[in-house]
UniProtKB/TrEMBL annotation:
<protein>
    <submittedName>
        <fullName>Uncharacterized protein</fullName>
    </submittedName>
</protein>
<dbReference type="Pfam" id="PF15370">
    <property type="entry name" value="NOPCHAP1"/>
</dbReference>
<dbReference type="GO" id="GO:0062064">
    <property type="term" value="F:box C/D methylation guide snoRNP complex binding"/>
</dbReference>
<keyword id="KW-0732">Signal</keyword>
<feature type="signal peptide">
    <location>
        <begin position="1"/>
        <end position="22"/>
    </location>
</feature>
<dbReference type="GO" id="GO:0000492">
    <property type="term" value="P:box C/D snoRNP assembly"/>
</dbReference>
<dbReference type="InterPro" id="IPR027921">
    <property type="entry name" value="NOPCHAP1"/>
</dbReference>
Length: 121
């Protein structure tokens, strides 16, 4: 009788783990400092929708979260996407901002845009 042992080795990038471990305490400290400021400062200073001329740096993030139903398999999703694309290809008429469809960029990551001008100039 032969006994075979399979060992799977998982290599974790320790540099990334170290970066995360050092970042989390910094984030906790920043959150504590923000909570202290919110107790004493006026509420409008923390309203992210109202920026004034004193704001130097602004980061805008557009995030979309989509939940797929559990019943769809990857194959079903790909098939349904292909079907919808072929149906949309046959639409005729005026092209507007509402019905224009750009080709999908495979492998393209999100873009980061840096704006040089100050807010509310």
């Amino acid at each position: 009788m032969h006994l075979f042992v399979y060992i799977h080795v998982i290599i974790i990038s320790f540099s990334v783990l170290d970066q995360v471990q050092s970042f989390l305490p910094q984030m906790a400290h920043a959150n504590d400092e923000l909570r202290r400021k919110m107790v004493t400062a006026p509420a409008h200073q923390f309203d992210i929708e109202n920026l004034d001329n004193t704001t130097e740096k602004v980061i805008e993030m557009n995030v979309a979260i989509v939940e797929l139903s559990d019943s769809d398999t990857d194959e079903e999703i790909l098939t349904s996407e292909d079907d919808s694309e072929s149906e949309d290809d046959h639409i005729t008429g005026e092209v507007t901002i509402d019905n224009i469809k750009f080709p999908k960029q495979k492998g393209e990551k999100g873009k980061i845009e840096i704006l040089d001008s100050k807010v509310n100039e």
